[in-house]
Amino acid sequence: MPATAPLAFFLILCGAAVGSFLAAWADRLPRGESVVADPSRCRDCEIRISWRDKMPVLSWLLLGGKCRSCGAAIPKRLFYAEISGAALAILAIWVAQSPLHMVLGAVFLWVILGLVMCDLAAFRLPNALTGLLFVIGLALASQDPFRGLIDGLIGAAFGGGAFLFIRTFYQWVRGREGLGLGDVKLMGGIGAALGATALPMVALIAAMTAMIVAILSGWRKGERPGSTAEIPFGAYLAGAAGLWFLIG
């Protein structure tokens, strides 16, 4: 709609910047570095990156994907994250039912992107992101005329409660942790955003995708099917939730 064009354009621009921020967060998470307090530096020459080299997408293209100071290659995942942030904003705009839903949907998908990257990078789901997912989930439920805040809370309780039970039962039976508390919090946020009825399908999509990827990865590495390698299941859950938000 013409009336929402400025808002849509703003969200697309923000998406690239948000993607850059989330990529930096995921990159620093395994090292325990702050994404806010610690300034951005080149990993090779340690030179602080200037503001002109921080423009999402554009700076990477102008620099040819290399550090201005030492010429070291800038990880392509940073560029892909910026593109992904903008692309998710476009998808949120495409499925939006109102200007508010457009904004909430974009933020929801950005948080999903951040959770996927953090779990893949460090097997961690930061509380700041799972907490924000819960808040955005309740906001999405509240603005939905067919759901409401109570339905969002029920979905959160169902999702978080179900995974807390699975986590406790698995630990009791196997004597070791199978699911982290981050996964429990993640499912609470997903339940709030999508509702309790969407959770079985989200879990099924995540489980099937994780299984296929694990089998293919194990086959490439020559591992046997019974391998107990750690899997960033939170990333699959978050990805499945984002997919279901768009098509479900």
From TrEMBL:
Catalytic activity: Typically cleaves a -Gly-|-Phe- bond to release an N-terminal, basic peptide of 5-8 residues from type IV prepilin, and then N-methylates the new N-terminal amino group, the methyl donor being S-adenosyl-L-methionine
GO biological process, one term: methylation
Domain named Prepilin peptidase A24 N-terminal: residues: 13-94
Any one GO CC term of the record: plasma membrane
Pfam entry (one): A24_N_bact
EC numbers, comma separated: 2.1.1.-, 3.4.23.43
Cross-referenced Gene3D superfamilies: 1.20.120.1220
Keyword Nucleotidyltransferase (UniProt): no
Highest taxon listed in the record's lineage: Bacteria
Statement: the UniProt record of this protein carries the keyword Membrane: yes
Main location: membrane
Transmembrane segments: 78-96, 103-122, 153-170, 190-216, 228-247
Protein's membrane topology: Multi-pass membrane protein
Signal peptide extent: none
UniProt keywords, alphabetically: Cell inner membrane, Cell membrane, Hydrolase, Membrane, Methyltransferase, Multifunctional enzyme, Protease, Transferase, Transmembrane, Transmembrane helix
Residue ranges constituting the Prepilin type IV endopeptidase peptidase domain according to the UniProt record: 107-215
Subcellular location: Cell inner membrane; Cell membrane
GO molecular function per UniProt: aspartic-type endopeptidase activity; methyltransferase activity
Job of this protein: Plays an essential role in type IV pili and type II pseudopili formation by proteolytically removing the leader sequence from substrate proteins and subsequently monomethylating the alpha-amino group of the newly exposed N-terminal phenylalanine.
Protein family membership: Belongs to the peptidase A24 family.
Protein name: Prepilin leader peptidase/N-methyltransferase
The species this protein was found in: Roseovarius lutimaris
